[in-house]
Each structure stands twice: as C-alpha cells, then as structure tokens.
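Model: You mentioned two targets. I'll fold them one after the other.
Researcher: Yes, keep them separate.
Model: Target one:
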Amino acid sequence: MHLILSSPFHQFKNKQKNPSSQKNIKKKESSRLDTEREREREMGMREEMEQKEEGVMATDFFWSYTDEPHASRRRQILSQYPQIKELFGPDPWAFFKITVVVSLQLWTATLLHDAGWLKMLAIAYFFGSFLNHNLFLAIHELSHNLAFSTPVYNRCLGIFANLPVGVPMSVTFQKYHLEHHRFQGVDGIDMDIPSRAETLLVTNVVAKSIWVMLQLFFYAFRPLFIKPKPPGYWEFINFSIQIALDAAVVYFWGWRSLAYLILSTFVGGGMHPMAGHFISEHYVFKPEQETYSYYGPLNFLTWHVGYHNEHHDFPRIPGSKLHKVKDIAPEYYDGLESYKSWSQVIYMYLMDRTVGPFSRMKRKVPGTAKKSE
C-alpha cells in the first residue's frame, strides 16, 4: 500500500535501493491474476456441473483462462521421449491411397448415370459416403503437408482429392484449419466452434438432429459469415478445376452421376458413423477436457483422425503413425477420456439434454493473434 500512495520520488528511491522490487511486484500481480482466473474457471466448471445434474443445456461456452493444452504437453513428451521426432514427416503411401479412392469413387459415379434415386441414395450412404469422407480427411492430412515435403505438391494433391467431393473446398479448408490448430478455442478465430446463431437455434433434440444432418453446411458457411477471407490464386485454381470436373461428369454421364458425388459428401457428413468425429474431437462431455481421441476401427478409413489428442500434440506426424505416439508415451493419454464408437458419440450428443452447441471450450484472443490480425 505504501508503494501505491508514495510519491514518484519515493518510488524512484525505492527502485534504486531495491532493483528487484518491481519484478517482485509483477510476479505477485501475475500470481494474483492466475489465481483469479483459476477461481473463475473452477466456478464456471461448478456451474456447468450443476446444470448437468439438473439436466439443463449450457447457456454459455466453457471458458478457459489458460493456453490450449497441446503445446505444453508436446514439450513435455518430447523432453522425455525425443525419439518421437523420428515420426515427423510425410506418409509415402498418401498419393497411392488417395489415387485409389478418387478413381473408385469417380468410376462408381459413372456406373450410376441412369440409376434410380432410391438406389443412388442407398449406395451413396452405405458406400460413397465412406469414400468421400475418406477424401475429406485426406484433405485434412494434406493441409498439414503430410504427403510430400514440398507444400505446393500437397496443395495440388489436395485439389485432386477434392474432385469426387463435388464442391471446391480443399484450399479454403487449409486456411481455416491451420488457425484451428494455432488458436484452438480462441473466440472469433477458431472457426471449428459453433456460431452464436447456431447456439440460439439448436436448443433441443429435434434441432440437434437437424444440425447433425446438416453440419457440413454449417462448417462450410460459418467462416463466410464470421471471419471471411478474400479468395486467393490457389482458391481460383481449386474452383476452376472442380467446376470443370463437375461439368465433364454432367456432359459425359449426366446429372445423376454428379448428384451421387454430392450426395456421398453430404450424407457422409451428417447422421453417419464417420461424421461422429466432428463431435467427438472437441465437444466437451467432461468439463476439464477439451480434446478427445477415438480408438475404434473406423480410424483405418479416416486417416486415423480419431487419434485427435495425439494429432493436436504432434500435427507434423501423419495419421498412420499417430498410434505410435500413444504406444511410446501411454502415460500422457491413458488417463484422458476417449471413445470407441463414433455412432455412440452422436447418440450421446443428441440424447444428453445438457450437451449442445455451447459444449465447447473457448478462450479470449491472445496478444499474438491480435497482432497477426
């Protein structure tokens, strides 16, 4: 108190007598702020637990006053297991795997040029959806440059992988997805988090069901309304090549073939087992945890994106090697909540009245993010 009330002259004298005093004051202030933030976090968690016990859907996001957990855990794991760095680098089989799936899906589309709509829908849901969702997650892999060491080659392969999806998205996806990693949960930057409009609309099981069926639309259009980015040269290339492919499909095989491709994309991103990863990755079912892994068989069809804690900890490791991270450092992951069924996650999201669009962890904009803006 004396320091606050004393004159500038006395403050200067005190600094001269004790140069470390200002540092001590700053440390105490920082400690006080950390304590207050932790208290606010605990109070927020307590409120959420009370709402959960009462069966009431959350009315605000989970707010965190600490940095996202992956950077610090990455440092800890690498200091203890430096051999994990040997897993960094591209997947040599990526090009082959993508080429096979693209070829198979385009060939299937040509076979369905005169199929009935019911048959087309059934094949799209039980077959084509798995292929297109696989390609969507291949594009996710390529956004981290995990097929080639040269970034431009990954971008070109991403545009190729985009072809059966029917809608140009690979280049734009990379722009926003890398921000999701760098600024996980940051308000107004991480476009993986539902918008305020979604939180107002999705308030019961019926609305949640519709949202799940249309979640790809929300993922696609959310950034355009919240944080639009001007399209660049590569987006123009992505758009041009995709529209040319779509036009060629319609010209040579007809509208039904193109409809099959687009149906495969959107039914596979809705009420579908593979789409469970959209919810399982970061929707908070346990208040103190914001990222969740899935250790089930569908990982083999989804570039092992289910190893999501491991992926955020080490985004430079290809999906095919993420299981090795857990094998090397099991003590960092075995204690975390995880899933074995994406279908169960969708069911939990729909039927748990306390879970909804607000069930995500958010944090305030850091100074580094403001400067980059």
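Model: Target two:
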Amino acid sequence: MGISRPQKSSNGVPTRWVYLFCIASFFLGVLVVNRFWDFPDPAKMDDEASSLKKDQITADHPTVNCEKQETAVRAGDILSRVSQTHDVIMTLDKTISSLEMQLASARAAKVINEDGSPMVTKSGTEHLKERAKVFFVMGIITAFSSRKRRDSIRETWMPKGEELKRLETEKGIIIRFVIGHSASPGGVLDRAIEAEDDQHKDFLRLNHVEGYHELSSKTQIYFSTAVAKWDADFYIKVDDDVHINLGMVGSTLARHRSKPRVYIGCMKSGPVLAQTGVKYHEPEYWKFGEEGNKYFRHATGQIYAISKDLATYISVNRHILHRYANEDVSLGSWFIGLDVEHIDDRSLCCGTAPDCEWKAQAGNPCAASFDWSCSGICKSVERMEEVHQRCGEGGGAIWHTSF
C-alpha cells in the first residue's frame, strides 16, 4: 500500500499546516485578550522560545492570514446589512410621512365639517366628497368687479367648457376662479357670480367676505378649501391679470414632484413700509426690527406654488396663523420657521413682450408674464390677447407636454 502524499492548498502550503497555523493564531488572540484584561500570560515566561518558534514557522511556510480573510468577509457582510437597514429606514420614513399627512388631512376635513364647509354651496347642505387625486390646482384670485379680466383669461390661456373638463381628466389640472361672497350674501353681486358660474362652471366659492384688505385671509381660506376638495401634488395661487403658459407651469412643477415641502415662486425681500397712507403699508412694521429693514424672503404675490404638505399645514393651522397686511408676506411668514425648500424660479415672473420673446428665443420660455410696474399686466383686459400672441406657448402645448 503506497503512502498518500499530504494535500496542499492553492498556494502550495500543506493543508494541515494551514489548520495548525489558524488554531495557533486563535490561541494567540486569546492570550492577547487575556493580557489586555490583566490576566496572567503563560507565554510571557517563555517569550524567547515562542519568538524563535514563530520565526521558524514563518521561514519554513508562507504566511496565511486567516484572520484578515475572515475580517474582510465579515466587513463586507456588515456593509451589506447596513445598506439594507438604511433602505428599510428610508422606506419606513416615507411611509410614516405619508401617514402623518393623511392624518393631518383627515383632521383638517373633520374640523372643516365641524366648523362649516369653507365652500359656499347653493343648498348649504352639500358635504365634501372624497377628494380626487390631481397634479395641481390653480386658483385665480378674482373680485366681483373683474368680469372682463376673467373673460380675457378665458379667451386666451385658460381652457373653457369641455376643454376645461378634459384638462382635469387627462392631465389632472384643476383651474378655478376663486371668490368669496359679498357682505350681504345673496345680493346682486353674488347672483351675478352664480349666473357666470352656471355658464362657465369654473368658480371655486369660498366662505369669505370679499375685500381688498382681506387678501391674506382669502388666500388662507383658498388653500384650506382646495386641500379639502382635491388631493393635489401642488396648489397654485395666481392673480387675474397675469398671463400663464400651462405647459411650462406643469413642467416646472414636475421637476419638484418628489420633494415633500417646497415653496416655488420669484423670491424677493422688499422694504417694510412704516409710513402710514402709502401702498403696502405694514402696520406691524416694528416686528421686523429697525425702521428701514426688509422682509424675510418670500414669493411675489402674482403667482406662487406650494406642495401638498404645506397646503395641508395651512389648512390644519389656519386658526392660529398670523396674517400681515400684505398677502405674500403672510404666506412667507407661515413657512419661515419650517423645514421648507424655497425655490426661486424666475420663469414665473417674466415681463411681457419683448422680454418673454427674448427668453423664448434663448430656450428659456416663460411660465408666467406680467409687468412689474403694474404688479400685473398693465391694462390686462385690453392687452391680454396681445400678450398671449407674443408670449404664449401655443394652444397645443399643454396637451403635448408630459408631466
């Protein structure tokens, strides 16, 4: 019977020496641990012999670092588990955030139902239906005296009739003129709005008494009402003398769709006006420091958009949110202490022609256009058609734009 030769590992070292060396390394590790904890170290009494033996083994056989190989495997496994844990935590965080917002929305709807619907209904007994899921809601703030402004918008950039319904079903875009009621509900002004709404079906009525100095309150009620009625990714406020390119607005918002708390507009920081009798006078100017100070950054009031979480926040806390004299300042103040991303998008505040034309030729078409000198399009009733012809994106743009 022949004598079998010892098996060798891949690097030529006999397998039994590998096993012996690993066992020796294990016991050596135990001794090191014992020394660290001040346990007696038997190897210390024969240090020179151990050193010579180790040198002899190292000289006769190549070194196999078992501990290093095992450590590398353990490290890779740990990194994999850390990555998996991180993914699970992120998923849970998103789920919790979503549940929190659903809870806040439910609470807001409950409070609205208890306090009385914020919407004016003909019967006064209609209840809020289940909210429809949409892309964005655009509320055009208007007044009783602005019938001609509304008509100029209907004839230019805002779809009407069946096209308005199609925009809702195919694109998830809701557009409404936003108005409250007069100081004497049911009067001639309210009846005129009801007749106009019967014709066009494009109003959102608020439980709010109309008045120029009540714009902050109207804006607050608008967002609360819109959140209660539609489950949208974004809610937009627009003045009724601004030109809008809906396709560009949709493309702009789509870039920020994954962000939970965004506030989009043309950010500014105007002076706090302490002088009485001037336009935009701030009665609470003293809260902003010394005379001559500026406001915090906030979006200009002609047009801005906020994400669902922020609109829900306004709805839930509307009874305790402070309102300043200027509506755009009020809105900015509601977010200044929150974890909100302010996005300064200058496509939302282009000038009228030739400014909008130059930007379109440069590859930066405008989402909204108006004249800064008038805080809207100057003489918008007469000029909206001209602005639409020169600044508009084309009637088919909204239908060919993917969001």
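Researcher: Noted. Anything on target two?
Model: The chain has a mean pLDDT of 81.
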